[in-house]
Amino acid sequence: MAANKIIDLIRNAGVVGAGGAGFPTHVKLDAEVDTLIANGAECEPLLEVDQQLMKYKAREFVSALEDARELLGAKKAVIALKSKYKEEIASINKVLKDYQQIEIFEMENFYPAGDEQQIVYEVTGRIIPEGGIPLMVSTVVINIETLVNVNKALKGKSLTEKYLTITGEVENPQTLKVPLGTSLKKIIDLAGGATVKDYKLIDGGPMMGKLVNIEDVVTKTTKGILVLPADHKIIIDRSVPIENDIRRSVSVCCQCRACTDVCPRNLLGHSLEPHMIMRGVAYGIDTDKDLFTQADLCCECGACDTWGCPMGLHPRSIIVEVKKQLAENGYRREDNPEVDSVHPMREYRQIPVSRLVSRLGIKEYDNHLPFSDKNVEIKRVELPLTQHIGAPASPVVKVGDTVKKGDLIAEIPADSLGANIHAAIDGKIKSLGKSIVIER
User: Fold this and answer.
1) Domains of the chain
2) Closest to 12 (Cα-Cα) out of 148, 158, 214
3) What is the pLDDT of residues 411-428, one digit of tens each?
């Protein structure tokens, strides 16, 4: 198939990165590199989507990986996953006999192994420049679920469904497939309901996930829903107002630099020093541009909070606030300096996931979960026009229109970065706004 045809099919299907920020996949694959990495490392504890897709959808994602490798002109493609994934490795190896330029790279079980900067260094030995992207070192990283969606796109199928892990305080934790736009309340019902009365929800994993409401919906980047008691430490930490975080930091931070010592970006040799940003905030230093713009290097993994700070402070929250204020005032790092070498202690300061799970207080939820690929009946979906990096999609339907699953309902605005959105169920358009609501 011609390269422009492949790009068009992926673009038309509305495929974006299935985790993280949702970068449009047709843009990511419109490049030339020498190495393509399929990210199967599953960064967050408790989430199992990519792990289970590698086992049950090996042929689909490997086929898409080969198509993407040829499209990018890459000499090789590498499936990076954790060595503990024995069943997944066996499943993939059964398929790889038909693919000569794809290999497996086994990683240790550390956090955040699935971060693309970590995975590029582990697989290739190359360090992405500060604030840069894998393309700068002739590499593209794409996760497993995204490849499954690419496989569907190349068969003419639009992106209308999402795999996610629902776990925590629910009756039947599992990984399942649901239509995009399904309410989180319905997701909890599909898992048999909550097992505690007073609970909160996190969209994502316990380290990087965000607090969400039960009225929110599944989007193209939803990887998991974690149901936790309202008084769980993870929930309490997420709920602290930024003003309180700053006041506590001014009073309590002892500049021990433990947050910097465990920072994955710092260990890659980048000039991110969380303890220095904490010092700058505490002492009201507002003239050192280099000090504060280093916040843009932060991947918000939370290692500084959970694994680093002995005082129970939240360096990540403060860095995120600094990043926000920098963006609002038009400040950003002006270059992407190259990095000569990683920190000499990087190997010894990696965070073991098993110990991290214990520290987070989620060991009781750390179980291998059942996987369901069956279709579920949903009568109402709400599809946000922004489920990706870039401009919101522009509706091409009006209230009262009848649509079929897979129909285009919102398109990429002209000359913009974005992604198409398609009807996730058959039904009628009930409302238009920041989201499109469809009901059967």
Assistant:
1) 3-153 (3.40.50.11540), 242-360 (1.10.1060), 379-440 (2.40.50)
2) 158
3) 999 999 999 999 999 999
